[in-house]
TrEMBL record:
The gene is corA. It is found in: Cell membrane; Membrane. It comes from Stratiformator vulcanicus. Keywords: Cell membrane, Ion transport, Magnesium, Membrane, Transmembrane, Transmembrane helix, Transport. This is Magnesium transport protein CorA. InterPro entries: CorA_cytoplasmic_dom, CorA_TM1_TM2, Mg/Co-transport_prot_CorA, MgTranspt_CorA/ZnTranspt_ZntB. One of its GO terms (molecular function) is cobalt ion transmembrane transporter activity. Its main location: membrane.
Amino acid sequence: MPTFRLSKRVKRPKEKFRFRRRSQPGSMPGTIAPPEDALPSKMRLIVFDQESFIEEFITDVSQIEQYRTPGRICWLDVDGYGEVETLLKLGKMFGLHDLALEDVVNAHQRPKVDDYDQHLFVVARMVQFDRELSFEQIGMFVGNDFVLTLQEGHEGDGLDPVRERIRRGKGRVRRSGTDYLAYTIIDAIVDGYFPVFEQYGARLSDIEDEIENGAEEQTINELHRIRRDVRSLRKAVWPHRDMLNVLLRPVTSGFIKDETQVFLRDVSDHVSQLIDAANYYREMCSDLRDFHSSQIDRRSNDVMKVLTIIATIFIPLSFIAGLYGMNFNPHESPYNMPELDWYFGYPFALALMAGTVLTMLTYFWRKKWIG
């Protein structure tokens, strides 16, 4: 695992954390309006059954029909939704609801499940970490013989382990239905959060050691960024629990078989673990911030104690120096400081000052005010 370190030079765009609805207020329901920066669509088609497997990159939706045969499962992965015509063709071919297609291109959706007559529509959020934290929405349609996933088009999606299992025929995916394929995709998305959480946890442990040894300002700024990222992670993970609860309901159109629900419950447990981790790391960030504040207060108190001791020592010394600095003429009166004419007067004053300092230091030491 690569070393995890948030660079001080990395400045995350603030709009990434803001809610932004893409569709215009008052627009007709089902209007497909991709954002201006949406990427062109790249389509990867995987068709398989227990005995065969085909994987092709296609450029037009019409190419799908030649691969769809009864008994085979068709998984079409669309990377980028900047081409409205492609989305409309997919909607017509697979019988997708217009409202679901609208939700696909509005990448602010909360993870959820919509139950339509001919298919399920699932929204999830994938996480990526490459010097900074980012999220990507994935919309998934689950039908009787097809699974359609639509992504925003960022590099890497965390679904390569699923594709590799299909290629090699590992596990149950090649001999199961679309519901199990949907489970493996959701499971891969949820599992993608664990390495990110582990990296944040390791970094927080390092920050704790740095604070104990006197953290620099850069470390504290990094702690603040981690706290913000953990808050974003929790916000992204939490709705997956509700999404999985809907999938586990018996009334979900019969698309999810009983044997698949067992696996979905395991994913739900993983989501609960992630939520617990997010809560723990959020509290850890707050505790470390409080710990740093207490360390600063302790060091400030130590400095103030030293300064107070020094000032306290100089109070009697100043008194002695001020006393013998008064210009009373000893020749005018025997009471006007006769020791000023004493041969050992100056050494006596210095010895008195030194004795006062040693007495005070001994007292402070016995009181354990100095080490």
